[in-house]
Description:
There is one protein chain. It is built from two helices and eleven strands. By secondary structure, it is mostly beta strands. The chain has a domain at 27-111: HesB-like domain (Hypothetical Protein Aq_1857, Chain: A, Sandwich), CATH 2.60.300.12. The chain has an eight-stranded mixed sheet.
Amino acid sequence: MADHIASTAQDASPQTATAQASVELSDAAVRRIARILSSEPAGTSLRISVEGGGCSGFQYKYDLVTEQEEGDIVLARDGASVLVDPVSLQYMEGAVIDFVDDLMGQSFQIRNPLATAGCGCGTSFAI
Length: 127
């Protein structure tokens, strides 16, 4: 089950957003992100952004960061903290961030309802 916890960073202090979070974290993603962050310095978050590029036009980028930017959406639960900037959020509305561990390997996967096409790598998409 995905969770709808979000806040917006403004003036360096997060504020609680409305209950209608536009990006969700699955339980598997929360567990994996919390595990990754547990070995990082305090205050580290996973930043997920959308960039131009990849074989389908847009691609997801994952970075570990210690600074929030103004306007960031903050998804936080059970030791997991994810930041999404407002521009990337436009391309991720309604998306679910998941973590998959199967025979093909381990990876974060984003189920994005706005994506009209994707490629086999799982990080590139078109809108």
